[in-house]
Amino acid sequence: MSSQYFPQLKATLDGVVATLTERGIEPRHLTFGGEGPKPTQKARVPTDARSEFLANRAMGDWAERMLTAAILAALPEFKVTQYGNTDRIAAGHPEFKTRYLAGMEETRVFGKRPDLLLFPATTAVETDLSERTHSDTEALVKSAVAAIEVRSSKFEALRYMAVRQKQRDDGNKSGRETPSFTVKVEDLVIVYRWLERHRVPQTYCQVFFDSVFAINFLDIFATIASGDGYSIETPAKSQEKSTIMIPITRGAQVGKATSLPTFAAEHRVTELGRHDAYVVPQGGGFELDAAAMKKVLLPAD
Q1: Measured between alpha carbons, how far is residue 140 from residues 79, 183, 234, 254 in Å?
Q2: Which pTM was predicted?
Q3: Which residue has the higher pLDDT, 188 or 134?
């Protein structure tokens, strides 16, 4: 990777802090660099996982699988390794509290793990590092070519934008013109912490049912610092946490669907006997534009 990636990212910080402060973001969300402060009070640990959480997790798992397969097909010079949390123990399980608190402490020290890592295909690395600790894998992880944070969406982005365009053509301007990359404000510091420590370029990939859009975190930070081209919302589904909404057109379309998934119903029975039903995407597939994907993954090359 280029040695200029992290210095370029760091150069955006003054602008990021200034513009977000002007928009009312609290200083505790804007303290960049180094380890996070040790907690002064006990963390609130979730005690239950309901249908919406289980459905969102299933969507996220599907998006990661589909994107991994598409990268391996389009970019054979890379090897894709699972790095982010794959723990499927949900809130309410006897072991959940211990794992949850350990995860919080690792994030405080090392930063937020990206979901996927890309290595040169010749690298001797496991396909799944998610259960390995930061300290155990840090030297290996620093040799990665790129990192990816994966997000899923219940929309077809291309269809969404086509409908909005037709509405505008008909003289009806209503709603957001494009879907958005959604970045929680509180994630900025912990993503930066990981990047500061590992110096591996990181990309944000939004997987829709009909397409994949991507933007590098360097461009996310630069966009925020500019004060233009995004909005900040506080949706209830994000637990009342401020979320930065960047139109996907500020990034690049790097893939399109070759087939749409089907859906199957699953359900989980809690310890107290509550049944939570949810749907899980199955199948589907994507074809990536190799050149477009590499341009986002390696912006300084």
Answers
A1: 13, 27, 37, 27
A2: 0.91
A3: 188
Residue 267 DSSP code: E
Cα 71 from chain centre: 16
Looking at residue 154, what DSSP letter applies?
S
Whether residue 125 is predicted with pLDDT greater than 50 in this model: the reply is: yes
Where exactly are the structural domains of the chain? 5-35+45-297
| pLDDT score recorded for residue 37 | 83
Q: Are 83 and 132 a contacting pair, CB within 8 Å? A: no
Angle (CA) 74-140-215 rounded to 5° is 45
Would you say residue 123 has pLDDT above 60?
yes
Share of the chain above pLDDT 90, in %: 65
Structure tokens at 196: 């500061």
Q: How far apart are CA 24 and CA 53, in angstroms?
A: 29
What CA–CA distance (Å, rounded) separates 106 from 113? Answer: 9
Q: Where are the beta strands (DSSP E) in 129-190?
A: 146-152, 180-184
Six-digit token pair at 177?
């013109």
